[in-house]
Amino acid sequence: xxxxxxxxxxxxxxxxxxxxxxxxxxxxxxxxxxxxxxxxxxxxxxxxxxxxxxxxxxxxxxxxxxxxxxxxxxxxxxxxxxxxxxxxxxxxxxxxxxxxxxxxxxxxxxxxxxxxxxxxxxxxxxxxxxxxxxxxxxxxxxxxxxxxxxxxxxxxxxxxxxxxxxxxxxxxxxxxxxxxxxxxxxxxxxxxxxxxxxxxxxxxxxxxxxxxxxxxxxxxxxxxxxx
Length: 227
What we know:
Layout: H1 3-63, H2 66-90, H3 95-126, H4 134-161, H5 164-193, H6 198-218
Helix pairs in contact: 1-2, 1-4, 2-3, 2-5, 2-6, 3-6, 4-5, 5-6
């Protein structure tokens, strides 16, 4: 081959192949930092939801609040979801395991939706009177503030990592915030206006949201996780 052509081809090869590889190596440490940030957010999610679940379940059982108990059980499931994402951020090749784990969490959501529906209908039928729970009200107020901030932080990292799984997990934080707002509305309406039916009604409002999350997971909605 003519030496001039060989030099030209060599230059084109260097521009098209070698330069992108160099950029990839340069970006690799930045990507690792983003993955570490994602892990820290999941650790924070697990810590917060564990506290949220403990306060909501204990307060709900003591006050006889179905909505508060349902909210606490939802926090337990959200903690499991964060644990799955944390494992996924550490895994090298675990797509099959990830799909199975997400389906298990989805089944838990559907069971939770069934539980909340049955207990709410029972409370409406028997006209059960829940007591006001100050700890439950305070944890709901805190969740309305904390969870949107956590979800926004996760979405920012997910966008930089191009991670569908982390973006989906950020929606769990939004989901928790909506449940907190619904729960708070039910508790306050009962406390301020004496609407005994507000608590089970608020729990019933949660049900389609919880069931929708579960159905999406059971149908195997794919998360394009590339960490």
